[in-house]
Amino acid sequence: MLDIIARRLESVLPRASDCVYCAARVVEERSERIAVRQDVVQPVAVDHDMGAMITIMHGGGYGYAATSDLSEAGLRAAVDRARGWAAKTAPRAIDYGSIVMPHPRGAYRTPVSKRWDGVSLGDKIGLLSGYSRRLKGHADIVDWEASLWHIEQTTLLATNGGGRVMQEIAFVAPRMSVTANRGVETQTRSLGMFDHSQQGGLEVLDRARLSHWCEVLPVEVMQLLTAPNCPTGPRDLVLMPDQMMLQIHESIGHPLELDRILGDERNYAGTSFVTLDMFGAYQYGSSLLNVAFDPSRSEQQASYAFDDDGVPAEKTYVIRGGVLERPLGSVFSQARAKLEGTANARATSWNRPPIDRMANLNVEPGDSSFDAIVGGVEKGIVMTTNCSWSIDDSRNKFQFGCEKAQLIENGKLGAVVKNANYRGVSATFWRSLSAVGDASTMEVLGTPFCGKGEPNQVVHVGHASPVCRFDRVDVFGGE
Amino acid sequence: MMRACFDAAIDHLRTRLAPGEVFTAWFQGENSDFVRMNQGKVRQPGSVSQRTLSVDLIRDQRHASGTVGVSGDATVDRQRMDALMETLRAALPHVPDDPFLLYNQSSETTELAGKDALPDAAEVTARVLDRARGLDFVGIYAAGRVYRGFGSSFGQRSWFERASFHLDFSLHLRADKAVKCGYAGETWSDDDFTMRLQTALVDLEVIGRPPKTVEPGTYRVYLAPAAVAEILNVLSWNGFGLKSHRTKQTVFLKMLTGDARLDERVSLVENTKESTGPAFGSAGFLKPPQVELIKDGKYVGCLCSPRSAKEYGVPTNGARDDEMPQALDFAPGDVPAEEATARLDTGIFVNHLHYLNYSDRPAGRITGMTRFATLWVENGRVVAPLNVMRFDETIYRMLGENLLGLTRERDFILDNDTYYQRSTGCAWVPGALVRDMRFTL
Known about the structure:
Chain A is of the alpha+beta class.
């Protein structure tokens, strides 16, 4: 089907002599969701969506038109509409005349070793039913669920300068949760919001160790149900990768997005405490902090060869030795800010224009084992699996909560505590980073639900991280 | 065009059924214009035309569902629907009977098609930016027609379409110091927009004063309607649904199983009768005009999807699968809104809240940030903008023992959510005077 549409585009896209830049981004997405809740198979959902986004830059203006009508007439109408937007808004538009867009050629495909459709629907239901039965490990468990979500997204980017990129990306997103209750106390343990989703096929399930979690989650939720509240006061804080993921996302990823710094998001997602003059000099974190934009790690959620503007993607450090080096900014934002950035123009699908997004943003491993990280703490706490996130619109004052925590006293892991939260300020928090775990503590995680933009869009982002320790952080519990 | 697509799809699906099969179908579409603006200039203008059809194919108690994009090309769409039906039919032998399957089997027909009086989006935004010349104006104009339809093999056809717009904008002075404003409706008026812009400019003068920073502690606050709406939004995550109540995950757990309650002036209703969205859901059930959720501070009812209805043995009230309210109506109080600053006396006037989440859900404790023109008030007079502060407080204190009053006037808030598609939700929200609200950072 995409081949047919590609041929239509050859006749529909205006020639370079008639239009400075025109691109068609055609997206076809197929997905399947299977869930078993309380041992009952939930409605199986199979989705298929397809459409095209036409983008035009001409006469100093910019316009887009997205359509699900992929006939030649439908595509031609979208080109005309996008051209109309560019013409009508050019007098009041930001300066698009100075932005030079690429015309790339290439392809990318997610490596898959175990095909999703290599296992029947019935067998997948059977697998989840088995997990579901094991999650109900105690009479106080009142809700439990295991689910799988599979997505195949194929994107064709064609430009009027001869550019043509085909990218085929496949994800598998497993999730489990278990909730226990006694009276006015309810606790949940889970695999987060699809934190373990990765690119690939059914081999993702092996990497996620679902059978292991089936045993662990019910035990831990029952521990939490009778656990004391997290104590209040400063403690050294050890964050496991499934909380580091959120910490990276909210207090490094979003503040470094160049469109936020340039003000595009100020009415919705917010601005940033980071300003253009900080790049190259600002001490964002301790010297142990090394953060890379890395679209090359094939199993990670946001790996690709080209972003949605067609810019080739490669691993790039944004923070090295704690010093802020470059923003997460696409070709549009780079031109506006006159800074080098990254290939991170991304759209949720064919019906939204690309904006600056995070993609994969990873903390590089250090040289401390988990035992050494904990052993060096006199009074501390380990937190795992995010369950609450809140940060101010400049991405500075944050408060995050975790499903489970365990106290550290004199270098030893101690009591489990519930309702664990901590708060801090991004601008100073990362400078308190005092230990970074080695490769053995590293996990490759992410979320399919990063929201941003006007109109709103969600994208997949990946965050790989080792275990990390921060000195003297304010922690506290529930009521 | 959209209605024709929907009717053609339902007609076609009815011809594709095998003996013993029935189906329900849910259509969603929109033709929308979006103009994004920054620094008083157009950043990204464009249009989106999209439509999808979700089909639930049912044989006895087995079923499978799927969604396809509808192109508008009849031949292509018939092929896509045929492929979907084959996929769903192939899935049926693999799925067991669903004990909680419930769908409407009526053949009732309803139709609601609002007028279309929206001007050209490019012309509107040109006039907006001309009036905002010289200002750091940021935001989005979203406008167009939204469509929802339900059809089934039993003959039911329900149709909803409505044209609307929202201009969601803010005026910025420096860093995070800004004034937020919204204008939404079905008929655009330059005069109405200009009035809102003028009001925002007056507020901007206050924002220009040297900001005040307060220490963590408890403060008397006035939560303007937009701030209260943010609290209602977070309460709507599993707060009002029957499933969350029966699985003890609701934020109102202490009201259900303990003796906690809100102030008797707090009453919340799902008010479909006055809403801006469809009165039917994706399983075809019509929603009752109103569902009482909290009355006089006490829990009285839930939103109940068809699936929860079957699971827990109670009647459905046509709620969505996620059982989130779509037309939440918070009863007004008796405080004149014009007296809010005077009655606040000394404290924090919170125009907007940002990024709320739970810090202890079973206890009803919420955290979040102040944002956009949060002001320090002394002796009933606005003194200075406040640097952002984090609150961390329970609903039982904010809307319970520490609630001093609700405003007589309410804001009618059209949901400006555009994730995946433009929302049809709305809410009626008063402002709230609260004592001893806890700020932590």
